[in-house]
Design goal:
Number of strands: 32
Structural class: alpha+beta
Bound molecules: O-methyl-L-tyrosine, zinc ion
Oligomer: single chain
């Protein structure tokens, strides 16, 4: 907690540690309120640093019992423990072993970092700086050690005892107790340490690696959930095979374990050989999980698995390098999904995600480079910028190098840095060396924040049969970075002829002529000429979204919906014009398009996206009404088309979560949503019929969503029926909470307040907080931003309450305020006041303090 304003940590102040720790031997005696940890560290001075008499270790919330140096117990005059750690005085000048004995209290740990007890399971979360809440350590990622872990517990309390690596011994002890010993032979930073203990059921399978090694695969879940692991296990095996095939990376231990827990701050964690997951991203059965849940499980299981090479074998030198593992691993999981499912649909989804979450971050008060240069609390930097924009930077490198050279560069990266802690520079150097392509200007992307704006204008010269494309780039100022350098921007381009097909391209100046259609914009302004263009072409720019930029042009742009919003502002009624309806009709009836692609094409931009497009003086009511009116008018015009597509995309028979079937359901449910937008009784009846008859959660939720967000008598009945069926299933109940929190109907805020008293809700469980309060704050623009400011005050109240329980979750929730300056003055004033109220609190965590002060600017 804050006593004075916390000081930022800066990348430029990095230095190697004064000591290295090569081995960690932990002896953990588990008890809910007093777990004792005896830790023995093999320490040696770092010869690159000046010699030190004192060793300073990190430690937080620990009760120190004993300290031994080279086996001898130290008197209290030889060491000093304080709030942030432990200093040992007068350590030997050579190598030595240091043993500490300390106690922590897992049952009282509501922050869910370090060792905590939740739902009867002992569980750890050490990234980024949680290990110091378990025992004293140089808790930084450049200190890599080999870990041995012995766990002891009462058998009835924790029949299963897990840690990283291979189990080397286990057995019974006196007094109904038992133990297990684990050894992880791969040196790793402390943030990858994990321990899990409790009453867990296990689902097993096996995988044979390319070189013929047999790996024991295990998923541990709460007993009773064994029938919800099949999809995650299948995804794991596919991810293992894919990483061998596409990146040449094999798994390296004899066992790979996943544990699913219900209380977890994030999605999942890549601890070596022992991944820990938020159970939402493991557990799935057709009747409990939606198609989106299945897809998330596949992606996140793969993501954590891929970290074994990008993150674990090669780790980060310091936390500023977070994108080194995260951006790269997100890129890898995106490619995996593209190969498993539809590449086009995956790309549309990822770009949509980037534009709705990362662009606003990059354009607001919390903007930071993909590799930040300072932070107050590192946990605040697990952001869309580090993850999603970080992945886009890797994707651009892939685009610039081409698949083959990219693979060469990656191979070199793995050989050079395996077993080491690396930096973004190391990564770029390996890719440049492996491909012989210069990435020196490209590097700016890593330290320059903000979304670049690219302007395009083109002219066809009929006499010269030449097409002249002028491109320019501007990166807007961001906090702390008023001036920006031009970036290296890869832009994939095509010129379309009259029939809509690509003309052959031969650029002069810029990229090489011929095969590649990727040009590199590297200056503030640049002209690209294409010769032998016989007709006036229609340019197609930034294909595949080859760079995370905002593109504007004089080449024909249709901002249909934003135009309609302006219409409403002027007192006219927004309508989908017949031209627009015709296009939607064409797409809907094009048999060549896959259903999910169609669904993505015909869905209207979300209200938040429209707010962003408007950018200033945003009025959320006008946006909501305009969008709804537009949707209804489109639905009226195409009612029979939507009805037909609804019927034609039925998926009869046994439910399968595969992409094709999921795509049909997605299109069908998009049609359902249009049909009900008309308010017609037969459409509502159709939704109610689907709700009653559905045998899978996807169709059930889609129908319930429509009913819950419509003012109709079926609404309460359906919500009650769903509640009664699922009230004992915590994951399904999260859906029920979220649906009600995102309702556009008046009274939503009071409903949310009421639901906080529901027995299934708890402020201590992050999934519950995200489902109810998080959904309200980030996915219900209309109601969160109600003009009286009540929505803001409610969320701020919860942020402050949560800050005492779980600062990470509190800070993330506060992120809902980040775009406050884009709203009209009344809301802006309410939001500013609310933020100031938070900042004025005497005791704030570093997490909340950093977000609140930076958001205010
Ligand atoms: N490294 C994990 C994400 C993660 C980050 C922080 C956590 O606790 C503060 C937990 C998980 C991943 O990328 O999946
Ligand atoms: Zn990750």
């Amino acid at each position: 907690m804050r006593t004075e304003d916390p000081r930022p940590i800066a990348l430029k102040d990095y230095s190697e540690p004064d000591f290295w720790i090569d081995e960690v031997h932990l002896d953990v005696d588990l008890a809910p309120e007093a777990t004792q940890v005896r830790s023995t560290l093999a320490v040696r001075p770092n010869v690159n640093r000046p010699a030190r008499d004192n060793l300073r270790l990190d430690g937080e919330g620990l009760e120190l019992l004993e300290v031994h140096l080279n086996g001898e117990k130290l008197g209290p005059n030889r060491y000093q423990a304080d709030e942030g750690g432990l200093t040992i005085m007068d350590v030997p000048s050579g190598a030595f072993t240091l043993t500490t004995v300390s106690r922590c209290n897992p049952a009282a740990n509501t922050a869910l970092t370090g060792l905590y007890l939740a739902g009867g399971i002992f569980c750890t979360q050490c990234e980024a700086e949680g290990f110091r809440r378990i025992t004293y350590m140089l808790d930084r990622p450049d200190v890599m050690a080999v870990y041995r872990t012995r766990i002891t517990a009462e058998k009835s309390l924790a029949p299963v005892l897990l840690a990283n690596g291979n189990c080397t011994d286990s057995g019974e002890l006196e007094d109904e107790r038992h133990f297990a010993e684990w050894h992880d032979p791969y040196p790793k930073p402390s943030y990858l340490f994990a321990l899990v203990a409790g009453d867990l059921a296990c689902v097993r399978d096996a995988f044979t690696t390319a070189s013929g090694r047999e790996v024991d695969l295990r998923i541990y879940v709460e007993p009773g959930n064994e029938d919800r692991c099949a999809y995650a296990m299948d995804a794991l095996k596919r991810a293992m095979a894919w990483d061998e095939k596409v990146f040449g990376r094999e798994y390296d231990l004899d066992i790979f374990m996943i544990v699913a827990v219900s209380a977890f701050n994030m999605g999942a964690m890549e601890n070596k050989g022992l991944n820990i997951f938020n159970d939402k991203y493991i557990l799935a059965r057709p009747d409990t999980a939606t198609d989106v849940d299945f897809a998330n499980i596949e992606a996140i299981v793969a993501h954590e698995y891929f970290h074994n090479w990008t993150g674990n074998r090669i780790t980060c030198r310091d936390w500023f390098q977070l994108c080194l593992k995260e951006g790269l691993t997100v890129f890898r999981d995106q490619e995996f999904t593209a190969d498993m499912r539809s590449r086009a649909v995956k790309r549309i989804g990822d770009v949509r995600m980037l534009r709705t979450h990362q662009f606003p971050e990059d354009g607001g008060p919390l903007a930071h480079p993909v590799r930040p240069d300072a932070y107050i609390e590192i946990n605040n930097f697990y952001t869309a910028t580090v993850y999603e924009k970080g992945a886009e930077l890797v994707r651009m490198i892939h685009t610039l190098l081409g698949a083959e050279k990219f693979r060469k560069g990656m191979d070199l990266y793995f050989t050079r840095h395996d077993g080491r802690a690396a930096t973004v520079e190391d990564f770029l150097e390996a890719l440049a060396d492996g491909s012989s392509i210069d990435l020196s200007q490209f590097k700016r992307w890593y330290h320059q924040a903000g979304t670049p704006e690219v302007m395009a204008s083109g002219k066809w010269d009929s006499a010269q049969q030449e097409y002249v494309l002028q491109l320019s780039q501007v990166s807007p100022p961001t906090p702390g970075q008023p001036h920006k350098e031009p970036l290296h921007i890869p832009i994939e381009i095509g010129l379309l002829g009259e029939d809509g097909t690509d003309l052959p391209l031969s650029p002069i100046g810029g990229a090489e002529a011929g095969a590649s259609h990727v040009i590199s914009l590297t200056k503030r302004e640049e002209t690209f000429r294409f010769k032998n263009v016989p007709v006036k072409p229609i340019p197609s720019l930034l294909r595949g979204f080859t760079a995370p930029v905002k593109l504007s042009s004089n080449l024909g742009d249709s901002a249909i919906l934003t135009g309609n919003i302006a219409a409403l502002g002027d007192g006219r009624t927004p309508r989908a014009g017949s031209g627009f309806a015709e296009i939607v009709q064409k797409i809907l009836n094009d048999p060549a398009l896959e259903p999910e692609f169609v669904a993505q094409m015909i869905v209207l931009p979300a209200e938040q996206t429209l707010a962003q497009a408007i950018g200033q003086d945003v009025n959320v009511e006008i946006i909501h009404e305009a969008r709804e009116a537009f949707r209804a008018s489109l639905a009226e015009q195409l009612y029979s088309d939507f009805e037909r597509a609804y019927r034609e995309n039925e998926t009869p028979g046994t439910y399968s979560p595969d992409a094709e079937a999921a795509g049909k359901r997605s299109l069908r449910n998009t049609c359902l949503s249009y049909l009900t937008a008309t308010g017609r009784a037969d459409a509502i009846a159709l939704a109610k019929g689907q709700f009653d008859a559905s045998d899978n959660m996807t169709d059930c939720m889609a129908a319930l969503g429509v009913l819950a967000h419509t003012d109709c008598p079926e609404r309460e009945e359906a919500l009650r029926a769903f509640h009664d069926r699922w009230k004992d299933d915590h994951l399904v109940m999260d859906k029920w909470f979220a649906l009600q929190a995102t309702s556009p109907l008046p009274g939503t805020l009071s409903r949310v307040r009421e639901l906080m008293a529901h027995p299934a809700f708890s402020l201590r469980n992050p999934n519950k907080v995200r489902a109810l309060i998080g959904s309200f704050a980030t996915a219900n623009q209309l109601r969160f931003h109600e003009a009286d400011g009540e929505g803001y005050r409610f969320v701020a109240e919860q942020v402050l309450a949560l800050d005492k329980i779980n600062p990470q979750v509190a800070a993330r929730l506060l992120g809902a305020f980040k775009s406050w300056r884009q709203f009209e003055p009344v809301r802006q004033a309410h939001m500013r006041e609310t933020l100031e109220g938070i900042v004025s609190q005497a005791e704030l965590s570093r997490d909340v303090y950093e977000i609140a002060t930076k958001t205010l600017g």
